[in-house]
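WARN no homologs supplied; continuing
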Amino acid sequence: MQMYKQISDRLAPIVSAFLLLGAVGNASDLPSSSYIFPAGGQRGTNVSVRIGAHYLHGGSPLRVVGSGVTASPAIEQIEKIWFEGPMVVKPLSKRAEDYPKDHAAEFFIDSNAPLGNAYWQLWTSQGATQGRRFVVGDLPEIIEEEIDGAPVPIQVKLPITINGRIFPREDVDVWRFAVVAGQCITCEVNAARLGSELDARLEVLDPDGNRIAENDDFLGPDPRVRFVAPVDGVYGLRIHDISFRGFQNYVYRLTVTSGPVVDHVFPLGGKLGAKTEFRLFGVGVDGPSCWLDLNGSPETQLQKFALPEGRSNSIPIAVGNFREIVEATSAKKQPIVVSESVVVNGWIDAAGEIDSWPLKGVAGSRILIRLDAASLGSKLDAVVRATSMNGETLIEFGSTPANFVEPRGEVQMPEEGQCMIQVRHVDSQASGTDFAYRMTVLPQPAPDFSLKLPTDALTLFRGDTAKLKVAVARVGGFQDAVQLEVEGLPDGVSLEESTIAKDKSEGELSLKAAMDARIDGKAIRIFGRPVRETSGGKGQLGQGDLAAADDGSMVRLAMLPQLPGDPSRDSVFLAVSIQTPFKIFGDQYRSDYAACGTVHYRPYRLERNGFEGPVTISLTDRQARHLQGVKGDALIVPPGETVFRYPIHIPMRLERNRIGRVVVMGVGEVIDEEGQVHKVSYSSSNVNDQIIILSSPSPTAVQVSPSYIHALSGHETVLNVSVKRGQLAAKPVTVELLVPRHFQGISARPITIDANRDTGSLKVRISSPRGPFNMPVTIRATTIDERGNPVVAECAVEVVASK
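OK structure emitted
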């Protein structure tokens, strides 16, 4: 390492000159995150997590957004938990696959942290990652101790939130808990809502192992199962992917509780500072009223209700500043005089029902209608229709619940000064107490607007431009152009394009980084102010075509979408980044046979483009196909060298006659003008640069007898080993025992079978064995081919546990 430091010091002037001249195009591997495990924790605890991410090259800073949650300032790469799992066959073996590396961090959750979500994100010298959720809960939590092999049931005590993941492919987790007859048990998965790839399925097994309940979709793809125990006993809960897939990022949080559970409430909210009556619906709570003092701030809050058995689970409650009308306590046909803003609380609790709310106001005045349902947990997919009193449609608009896009629209009051607002569900056959809504009616809305951000991360390379779309929602007839401004721009970054044209629903913010902009990450905020066209005409507005349209009081801050339980987020993390100077190319298109158990080489050329430092070659984090056990060690291309051959190890378990496509990556260190070292990388993803192989049978083989080991303390099993060298030269063969990491007390000293022999004896000793022994051990035989490379053969040996 000292040698490379000296080399880097000598190269610093050259590299700095390269940075000032500019890179040769965007040839960089952008960092990204894949998962956090566990994906949450209990209030008042510290949680050690594994963060899976790509292209961090050792670690990165860590940023957390959310009240009451902090974390380590940085994450560091650690040994990866990896289970190969069953063989992947075509067509699934043709799918691209990511291989995130594991990193360690610590999250600290304050005892008073709000229940719900915090967000975390990472950044490197080559970009920023989008935020991912970390959940704050209040129940006791456990973290799955992951092991390979067949499922092993784990006993838990209720209530509990279980943090697990379905890994490897075809994994099934089994959790067991004691239940008394008559108890109602609710089991809910939070996975897809976390951004996990898991499409979970839940099964409940009674004490005799019979399936008594199952579900795969309830809250979107996330399942929920509820059952009443018919008898006393220990019940099982199985969770797996609906397609029996699984990987590192198939994380989940599984909450299992007994007793009363609030599923939903009515109304969905109330007025700030008011004591509000709510009807509760769920298990053991149907119908009764419960009162809440709504304090804090006017936003959606997660609230708990006082029940005889204690406090309930969390429910999203909207809190506003306007007068409230509740359907159950109001005469629906009496006109609502909209002289002031009002919130109407209703529900579609009967099939085919259409709620009709008559409004009375000033003729010709405009009224803003804003309905909230899906974003508050309601099942209502609302359609809102405004009509004159004789039934003529004035306007109709709907929602997109999958994206939490709620109905919004403006209606002009007819000459008679009255209109009817109708609310229905898009499917006339669906209804229920959980099809509730809050409809805000704002009379004479002043011209105004709000801004929405599409992402919380933006990568901007030196000498380049990055664009960010910003959406504008217009109300009250507001049609002016909107000038965007940025707070917190780092030195060397300038705002180029920043106008949302009049009558448009979105515009682009354009940022440009100078060639010497400081490489760093920084949170920026985006504001908008109205401007008016003063000259010119149609087309792109120029700087001379705009004039301020207000006195500065109408400046609006761009926000990120907020779901129940989310913190309010108003910033974008900007990573000023550096491009990778070098590239990696294959010498030509190649497709070769590769025998299982052997080492295969591929020639490459390194195009340095002025970079003269060492480059470390390894398998990249994002692969064109499932690797299925293909491995590659780190290889260092020394300074000045431009050609190399990269070796990959072909596993024994690879599907035969399978076309594999392996992508390699180069990592180097660039030093900027300040002397800061930045790790940069480039992956050879083009077809001509891939290591393309067609797998063929191994040239050697190994067999053992007997095919099992008896795991009895103090016992010794002699395995008779037979090797077949095939066309290989007669050379010594080393035979060793490979034991899963969760096995203890099973060992064997390696043996060598001489070149003139084909058999040997491997003695397996058992000392205080401990499992579970839920998978076989492996016998590996290794010899050397004519090029001096290892050739391996393997076979499995079952472990029989003592009784």
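The two ends are 53 Å apart (CA to CA).
OK
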